[in-house]
User: What shape does this take?
Amino acid sequence: FAGKAADPALTEFSRAANSGYFPNKIVLFHKEGPEGRVLETLAPFVKEQTALNGRMTAYVCRDRACGLPVTAPEGVRERLGFAHAK
Assistant: This one.
């Protein structure tokens, strides 16, 4: 995820990512601003993964390739393959 830590959408995105079983799933949160730089040093690929138009944004990656960003929790569920989970 990419966005502001205070964004209430973060909770919904987190619920969406955890709404189904995905045994090897790793969730990273790329905070905006200087706080995000720490994650960028550990996982350089997140540097380009930013919030779109100020909205919480998710990037779902598989096999070292990331898909297009989504800005709704439903998009996270769809990309992870549990679109019907609530």
User: Anything to note?
Assistant: The mean pLDDT is 91. The radius of gyration is 12 Å. DSSP finds three helices and four strands in the chain. The longest strand covers residues 2-3.
